[in-house]
Batch of 2 targets.
Target 1
Amino acid sequence: MKRLTIWVACMLTLAGCTLAPGTAEPEDSELIVVGFSQVGAESEWRVANTESMRAALCEANGYELIYDDARQEQENQIRAIRSFIQQDVDYIVLSPITESGWSSILQEAKSADIPVILVDRCIEVADESLYTAYIGSDFSKEGEMAVQWLDAQLERQGRTKEPLNIVHIQGTLGSSAQIGRSGALENAVRSHANWRLIAQEDGDFTRAKAYEVMTDIVKKDAQIDVVYCENDGEALGAIDALEQAGYKCNVWDGVIVVAFDATNLGLNYCLDGRISLNVECNPLQGPYVADIISALEQGAPIEKVQHIDETLFDCFTITQQIIDARAY
Ligand code: AHR
């Protein structure tokens, strides 16, 4: 199926997608066939990520995209990759649910001579030649930005000596996003004598799961100072449970809620003060993948590992204008 030849101009209206800036409209062209195995649709972030991939790898830009939603199961991702290999696609793009368990299937892709581009999360393999490139977030750096902000904020509040009770709601266990963000918090807890992890639960990056685990935690009626949630969906679920149990969520006289992603909804919670800090995780990764493929097509050198620049937003500086100016 490699290099699907079609008359692209005819397909532009049918595809309903626009040419990327600077892309010349091809007339009689060959489409690059890409199989994309996505984790699922567990969060608002993930939906934005899928849309970005679909927009960048559309027919008008010269691609035939075969999309597979793994519904949060690694088995489904492995099955999808095997099917991409059978279809003899030109490239496989994989957003791996967890870091481990990829060697055999990626060896199959390598034997079939199909380059694999990892997007969003990375993998742990002994043989790094099993993937061609990785583009995604630096999750450890995101976690470090969060704990440094928390440290500075507590210092401003004169709370460096009093016991600090932290609830930690983790993302999907074994995913790069969880490993990086959890690692930063756990290191910070080790290096602060007054920081205590009073609960650590898996929220699976979903609002529903975080609501469920937080509902159990608040039943213990504990003093909770900080809730560190590994994405916006989890923060929203945790806030629902905390508020139902009578806790206030704010940095001034309530629970300090830390979140990751900085989606539109998450930043609106930041604007009304219920999320104190929101560390950005940029889902708009489609154009980066298209750039990598285009460089590979031209035989140009590529960087094997690329991290996207990201920032943070807090309840003190966020404004409606900032939210409105953002693309997701
Ligand atoms: O891997 C990125 C993480 O996965 C995002 O933080 C989260 O929202 C998503 O589900």
Note: Residues 139-156 form the longest helix (18 residues).
Target 2
Amino acid sequence: MRLDKMISECGIASRSEIAKAARAGGITVNGIPIRRPDVKVDPAKDKVVYRGNAVVWRRFAYLMLNKPDGYISATEDGRGDPVVTDLLPPEYRKMGVFPCGRLDKHTLGLMLLTNDGTLSHHLLAPKSHVTKSYGFCVKFPLSDEDIAALERGVDIGGYVTKPCRITLKGEREGVIEITEGKYHQIKLMMEAVHNQITHLERLTFGPLSLDPALARGEWRELTSDEILQLTQATFQIK
Ligand code: URA
């Protein structure tokens, strides 16, 4: 692959910055200064050093973030609201990391971010049936009939939700597990039983749980085992 592609995909610098650094002798490959950014390198074998720092090549980044209130699940927002990628260091934004699915502006908790479009697509594909669980609070007590209706499926505006599971923790709070991700799904489900969400927080996404060590707004990279678990979750035959 081209030297400038390798370095830029790591989020270290833009192609034009790389061309400039190469001209100035700031890039070496296996110890030899390389002045042309289009030379071919083998990222697995060649030792590339950019302005004194070894470049560890990787194409994809996988992150877990504890989404705080008020952030939009996007990489930019036309109205100037803060977006979840604002919470990441610039190298991830340069790598093209984006949120895997949406959480509403006021929903908190587990958000996955990656630049791996294939994995993201598979995780969100309805046929993958990846389960997500959310802790919730509602305005009014939920009756047994409400729970039965929600678990069976309710009409959220021309679409009847698939069966889900609810575990109540009190008469106005609990955990709901869903296997789909329609726009405002849980909010609309509660409205369908004449109730209102007052707090919503994603706790799990497929096999992964929100890391309790992450405060709101904090993030960390997924471990290789977590990435494997996510990939496997999309291959399971349901
Ligand atoms: N359901 C909602 O209503 N909002 C979310 O953010 C996620 C699921």
Note: Residues 69 and 125 are 26 Å apart (CA to CA).
